[in-house]
Specification:
The structure is a homodimer of 668-residue chains. Chain A is mostly helical and 668 residues long. The first copy, chain A, contains 18 helices and 2 strands. The two termini of chain A are 41 Å apart.
């Protein structure tokens, strides 16, 4: 086949993805948004979310411009343009996705008045808009720029642009959502004793906005980055291995094509019966995508790869060996999801052990939760190690990059089922705030419960893919920096390793402190409103929602700067001061430690959350007991763990990698 | 000079250390143990501590014998004998030290009735018995075995023996002390509302025993291990660098001689006025040792090293360059202590920020505490990195080993001022339980406050020296395994790195869970006693102290097995399954991640503790306020962090290293 056509395939598939996204968006918007009150609430959430995104992107403009100018001077206009396209695409995916998910919430509530399947349909299609925007823009950007410039090294600025945005989206969104959540919970639920999502709580709108900017926009930017970085690192490695001999160098784009088309097809499998568990509908979508992608990839490798190819380093690559690497990547996808679910589900032992420990108070709840989080790192480590060894055994470094790309190719459906969660969550909140019949809330609660599980799966996916992406970037860095070894017996390498491993610790400290500071402001404001607005507790007066939204926004933007600069600045400093082997050590240390910390924090947070839910189901005395109070404290500590620091670490380890690719040629 | 005489110097200095220890012990025992009640309480603590040590060592006998037999078969009797000597020496140091410190407590209380200086003298000399036993037996063992077998590779089993004991001593002691502490605090202080060290609390004796088995015996075994491992790794590296050309290969023993003699001299500087701060007395001892060691080392290197020596790899070593490495090691000593103090002292911002966060409840207290702990890793990382780079710049790998040995040479005085802490703490407890005049408690409180600071300094020392020891072991491993590079671009190496970095997470999870389980039993027992023993709360009946001591002992022994086997088994498995480059990656990953986790956990725990003390001093409302209750929860979570998992990680990273030296020749 004509190799030069492969990028065209990528472009076409990307556009198809975007068209289907538009179709889904129209279909969501054609639904009724419900009564006046529901529209009003939905609008408040939407405006809050958009206000935040506007402010976030506006804050990043000077920062992006400086990088653009630097790239223009040292690397030329194609690199600068690629950077711009990468960052703008990430922003567009965020805008479009958020626009739809925040409009879909009231429509889901309205649909839930008549049918569970209809409510699932509205919320899932809204999520799919985000998912297909991410995958579609990612594929379109990489393939389009590659066709334009014909060189993977030039367009890695696209990945860097995506990285830079993702970093701030993760950190800022994570701070926003948790400041609002902690504020709403601590003052509203604990101090004032009013239920979740009660319209009397001044922070309730900010809390709902937070679900969107954290889970939807943050996750979208995160996976957009992984997608772009993996595809480009793959192209770099592919070209160094194949050196123009055969289509293997551009297989990465074709895997992307297979993944996005599979996601689109599988998204039509997502429908449920009235009394069925919506979980199985989403599982069909997820499994369907994986199976279809594997099948398509099997056809592809046998069609376009030569029957056998011997790379310069002597590794023999055959279609079946490449397929084995693809299966490896898809298996990581499934396995990390299952492990994450095991360690966080309230149906399983880990979360239940935390619930039991709550009987002896908050301290034992916390000790047990921290232990569960720490323990949950072992199996993901083994999974990643096995995937690395097997895919390397199959096809060398090329195999590792292929496995990463296979995993990421399913990003469309993963983001879809992840973004579905906040929509369902918001829908429940709107049902509550609009004082609809409790049966509506019951229906949305069914969806929301599923959303918690899919969020865990997506989190596992984001972390696992970040690790594989980082490994691919690490190998691509060695390629670009012309390193044939990175020897940790050399002291500068081990120093790089130390600094790289230490960075996630310092970075998550800043992220957690930021939540603490932002929450402090929020708590003061909510307390002030309860104190100063007469008739608020009695439901006679309306709280000032906008003030809380504003506090979250300002605090998140202010607090994201330091961790962001730390993440971007340290690799540059280490690279130029200590040289490229130190940089290599740093990438390895950062990947390993960042992965461990991300798993630890995310799973501890998830387990605390579900331990609380388990108690709320009536175990260990149920709501209102000291055990429940202890579990609420654990859940609150877990919030910044799982929604701020944990996810931000994914962005951290990838941004270290994409920066390293940019500066690699300049390092000594 | 005659090189063969150098080990004799080591033997003589080791014996001098032990003789001075005996002198100090006699001097402590010649003091009055106080009235009958004090003697009775002291005896209970002593019996509990000895019962625990007996049981711990007895449990380890079969384990040690198996290793001994394996070593006998695969490495011959010198290795087996060295292992035996190493483990028995560690046990002896533990026994002797504990015997004296647990007898010194009541004597310190009695001395405090008349004079602060006298009380300081008793408690410090008791600590010095432990300190000089550790350093003396360490130096005697290494020098003696080296003289006997003339080969560093054979006697590295001595270090392995010390490691194996230290691992279980740290884990078991850590579980013991925190199970007792959590039990005593949660039920006694929080639920029953009785003060600390109240004789009505059934867990009060177990709590005091815990201070000894955790801080004294655990720390002693830990630093004995560091001492032995560093000296032997140093000899290994020294011989590979000097290959018989000059005394440089045995400089390690001489630095040990300088350190122990300096510690002895400086220990006589430790005396205080009646109204002075005892801290400055201990500082004199610490600084005195460092300065004297540096001065002696300066003389030594210029006397015995050739003016210039060019190693096989081209590195030129001069006396001044070696001296620079020595200063590096001593500087790490001072710097890590200062950093630890900054992050944990209640006079400084970090702990105070946690106190402030307590105002909004336990959740914000915990978030802030975790953030402080995470943040506190950055400066120690930079310190270790700088020391590594500078000492390598000065004299290559030899320089790194020299820096580690210089740091460890001061172990005698560090263990002394660390072991002093539990004696002062116990003394206060005895004053309380024996219902002495409050002025006595006031005097012992002065000592106890200093003990908290010196404990922080010693903890920093233990962690920092563990990192340097691990780096020295890592280089010695490369030497013994004939690795001229450990390339992290090779997938098995990066897999080793992943597993090595993951091990501290899993290991500390087990340690924390063990505390949770043991504390659970303890809480149930204390509650039972309060419920079932009539008149206990009114002070009319005596609680069953022995039952609590027994529960802690059994739980600690039972729970130390799994983390212990994990620590010993994983490196062997990785080494034999994945080969020696994977083992190298594992050592690097374990060192880096274990160091970070140890600093994070120790400092978070210390800061939580002092945040609580800060509130108790009257800030943020003082005792009895919700802020105080929140701080108590943080402190309780911090307990297993700082006293179980954190310190155990030091032992973990070193045992990985000493095992690697044993199996290095057998790996492919």
């Amino acid at each position: 086949m004509d190799l030069s056509l492969i990028p065209v395939w990528g472009i076409v598939a990307g556009i198809i993805g975007l068209l289907v996204a538009i179709f889904f968006a129209k279909s969501v918007l054609s639904e009724s948004p419900g009564n006046e009150k529901m529209v009003e609430i939905s609008k408040a959430i939407q405006e809050g979310a958009m206000a935040y995104l506007n402010r976030q992107y506006r804050t990043l403009i000077p920062f992006a411009l400086i990088i653009c100018i630097v790239l223009l001077i040292v690397k030329g206009w194609p690199a600068a343009l690629s950077f711009l396209v990468g960052s703008v695409s990430s922003a567009i995916a965020g805008y479009v996705g958020m626009n739809i998910t925040t409009r879909a919430n009231a429509r889901t509530t309205e649909a839930a008045r008549t049918s569970l399947n209809k409510a699932l349909g509205v919320s899932f299609r809204a999520g799919a808009v985000m998912g297909l925007s991410v995958a579609g823009l990612g594929l379109l950007g990489v393939a389009g720029l590659f066709m334009l410039f014909g060189d993977a090294e030039t367009i890695n600025s696209f990945a860097f642009g995506a990285s830079a945005i993702a970093l701030f989206a993760r950190v800022g969104g994570g701070i926003y959502t948790k400041a609002a959540d902690v504020g709403a919970d601590l003052v509203g639920k604990v101090e004032a004793g009013i239920p979740e999502d009660d319209p009397r709580n001044p922070a309730v709108i900010a809390d709902n906005v937070g679900d969107n900017v954290g889970d939807t926009a943050g996750m979208g930017a995160d996976l957009f980055e992984s997608y772009a970085a993996t595809a480009i690192a793959g192209l770099l490695i592919g070209f160094s291995v194949y050196k123009g001999h055969g289509a293997g160098e551009m297989l990465f784009l074709l895997i992307g094509v297979a993944g996005i088309l599979s996601s689109i097809i599988a998204s039509f499998f997502v429908r449920t019966g009235e009394n069925a568990n919506p979980q199985s509908a989403l599982n069909k979508g997820l499994w369907g995508t994986n199976i279809l992608t594997a099948a398509a990839a099997y056809g592809l490798v046998n069609w376009i790869l030569p029957p056998s190819y011997t790379a310069a380093n002597g590794i023999v690559i055959t279609p079946n060996r490449v397929f084995a690497a693809i299966v490896c990547g898809l298996a990581v996808n499934i396995l990390i999801g299952l492990i994450t679910e095991y360690f966080t589900s309230n149906q399983k032992k880990p979360a239940q052990s935390i619930a039991k420990a709550s009987e002896t108070g908050a301290a034992t709840n916390l000790i047990q939760g921290l232990a569960v989080g720490l323990k949950s790192t072992a199996l993901p480590v083994i999974t990643i190690c096995a995937a690395t060894l097997i895919s390397f055994q199959a096809a060398g470094v090329y195999g590792i990059a292929i496995a990463a790309m296979a995993m990421l190719s399913t990003a469309g459906i993963v983001v879809a089922i992840d973004s579905f969660g906040p929509v369902a969550d918001n829908a429940g909140g709107i049902a509550e705030m609009a004082e609809l019949d409790p049966s509506v809330r019951k229906t949305t609660d069914k969806l929301d419960a599923v959303g918690n599980t899919t969020a865990a799966v997506a989190k596992g996916f984001a972390i696992g893919s970040a690790a594989l992406t980082a490994l691919a970037l690490f190998n691509a860095f060695a390629e670009l920096a012309h390193l044939d070894k990175i020897d940790i017996l050399v002291p500068t390498t081990i120093v790089g390793l130390f600094i790289g491993a230490g960075l996630p610790f310092l970075f998550s400290a800043f992220a957690m402190e930021a939540v603490g500071k932002a929450a402090f402001d929020m708590i003061a404001e909510v307390r002030r409103q309860f104190r100063e607005i007469p008739g608020l507790m009695e439901g006679k007066a309306k709280p000032d929602y906008a003030a809380c939204v504003d506090i979250s926004t300002k605090a998140a933007i202010r607090q994201m700067i330091i961790p962001g600069l730390l993440a971007v600045g340290t690799p540059v400093l280490v690279g130029f001061l200590l040289g490229k082997t130190a940089m290599g050590g740093m990438l390895a240390g950062g990947t390993v430690s960042g992965f461990l910390m991300a798993v630890y924090m995310s799973n501890a947070g998830g387990a605390w959350d579900n331990a609380k839910k388990y108690i709320e189901e009536g175990h260990h005395g149920g709501k209102g007991t000291p055990a429940h109070a202890a579990a609420v404290i654990g859940d609150t500590v877990g919030d910044p763990f799982k929604d701020t620091s944990g996810p931000s670490l994914n962005a951290l380890i990838k941004v270290m990698g994409t920066i390293s690719l940019i500066i690699a040629p300049f390092l000594r």
